[in-house]
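> forwarded from #structure-qc
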């Protein structure tokens, strides 16, 4: 038996989409802060801080319990004696 998400061809594809969606606001905030950075050193610190936050988002997604709903249909031959 295999189990995969209905909207995606694989769990990797589903994870990638969830990570992208979760990081989108963070990326926008990072771009705004980088634009306001006064020097390369400050920009490097900003990038490092945001990389740590991105890794935390990925960790949260990877370890978040997910709900699985399924319908199972079984048919068999029942022989009575």
């Amino acid at each position: 038996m295999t189990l995969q998400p209905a909207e995606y061809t694989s769990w990797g594809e589903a994870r990638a989409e969830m990570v992208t969606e979760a990081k989108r606001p963070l990326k926008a905030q990072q771009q705004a802060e980088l634009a306001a950075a006064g020097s390369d050193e400050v920009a490097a610190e900003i990038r490092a801080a945001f990389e740590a936050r991105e890794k935390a988002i990925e960790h949260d997604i990877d370890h978040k319990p997910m709900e699985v709903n399924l319908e199972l249909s079984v048919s068999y031959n029942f022989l009575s004696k």
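QC bot note: The mean pLDDT is 90. The first helix runs from residue 11 to 36.
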